[in-house]
TrEMBL record:
Domain APS kinase, first and last residues per copy: 142-292
Pfam families (UniProt xref): APS_kinase (PF01583)
Gene that produces this protein: LOC123188081
A cellular-component GO term for this protein: cytoplasm
Composition skew (Low complexity), residue ranges: 1-13, 39-53
Name of the protein this chain belongs to: Adenylyl-sulfate kinase
An annotated Gene Ontology molecular function: adenylylsulfate kinase activity
Signal peptide start and end residues: none
NCBIfam families: apsK (TIGR00455), PRK03846.1 (NF003013)
GO terms (BP aspect): cysteine biosynthetic process; hydrogen sulfide biosynthetic process; sulfate assimilation
Gene3D superfamilies: P-loop containing nucleotide triphosphate hydrolases
Length: 320
């Protein structure tokens, strides 16, 4: 009997992994599925010929665990977010596995799925015969990043669009990266917690670097409240082509303008972590251009754009 039992094939377990949010253990558990009766002989033979389900084939299953939502909280039904230390990534660090957060209905926790496949280290840079200098000579301009920073309502987006239009009028190729616009696509999985803000700026910095390498004047318009994040982006362009423009407008002026009504919502407690109200803004220490209010009034968009263009001309970024 023992020999017969040993020779008999083991039943194949099928089911799904779920995570319990009750209790301090927060343990994962396996939920077996009831075997389904074959609908027809053809479907049965098809399953056999294909080699069985992924569970039958013994494929690696992801490990599930539950962690506090601060690791990567999702609000309002947003897509899954990567829960990782974004500031470490700004410094060049990399985690060994990706974590994808999935919101749990009615729970202040996030379900994380850890990849069983580590990141590959066998990655090599591939050089192309046409380089940055070739592209700049073709465009008759020098690629750079004009990084506009300041409080909400200080006029960043207005300046960015005006500057882009003026450069276009002069026959120069420029592209605007706007904070709100990128959160509709590239950064739509990020919120406004400190780690999300850091990852937001990290991604933008990498994209802006590519635009500058292509020979364009990349105009990046972001609150980017943390000095360390902005400096990480500056470090990506070591040739002096990172131009930080600080719109130094007072909180009183920005709040009085409040074009999006965000300050009113923040004062009413309907927005948490709003820069200038209950989250800090770290002003630049050594920006290339600082634009200040005059007698409590923000300068006109054309005047601000002219100031930036003068700098670009003086530094040779708009050479013919």
């Amino acid at each position: 009997m023992e020999a017969a039992a040993a020779a008999a094939p083991r039943p194949r377990a099928t089911g799904c992994l779920t995570a319990s949010t009750a209790g301090p253990q927060r343990a994962s558990r396996w939920c077996p599925r009831q075997p389904r009766a074959a609908s027809s002989s053809s479907s049965s033979s098809s399953s056999s010929s294909s080699g069985g389900s992924p569970a039958d084939l013994g494929l690696l299953r992801p490990r599930l665990r539950v962690s506090p939502s601060s690791a990567g909280r999702i609000a309002g039904g947003a897509p899954p977010v990567r829960a990782r230390d974004s500031r470490a990534e700004c410094a060049g660090g990399r985690s060994s596995a990706e974590h994808v957060g999935v919101s749990l209905e009615g729970e202040n926790r996030v379900l994380e799925m850890s990849s069983t496949v580590p990141k590959s280290s066998n990655i090599f840079w591939h050089d192309c015969p046409v380089g940055k200098t070739d592209r700049q000579n073709l465009l008759k301009q020098k690629g750079c990043v004009v990084w506009i920073t300041g409080l909400s309502g200080s006029g960043k987006s207005t300046l960015a669009c005006t500057l882009g239009r003026e450069l276009h009028t002069r026959g120069k190729l420029a592209y605007v990266l706007d904070g709100d616009n990128l959160r509709h696509g590239l950064n739509k999985d990020l919120g406004f917690a400190a780690e999300d803000r850091a990852e937001n700026i990290r991604r933008v910095g990498e994209v802006a670097k590519l635009f500058a390498d292509a020979g364009l004047v990349c105009i990046a318009s972001f609150i980017s409240p943390y000095r360390r994040d902005r400096e990480s982006c500056r470090a990506l362009l070591s040739d002096g082509s990172f131009i930080e423009v600080f719109l130094n407008m007072s909180l009183e002026l920005c709040e009085a303008r409040d074009p999006k009504g965000l300050y009113k919502l923040a004062r009413a407690g309907k927005i948490k972590g709003f820069t200038g109200i209950d989250d800090p803004y770290e002003a630049p220490l050594n920006c290339e251009i600082e634009i200040k209010e005059v007698d409590g009034v923000c300068p006109s968009p054309s005047d601000m754009a002219a100031q930036v263009i003068t700098y670009l001309e003086d530094k040779g970024f708009l050479h013919e």
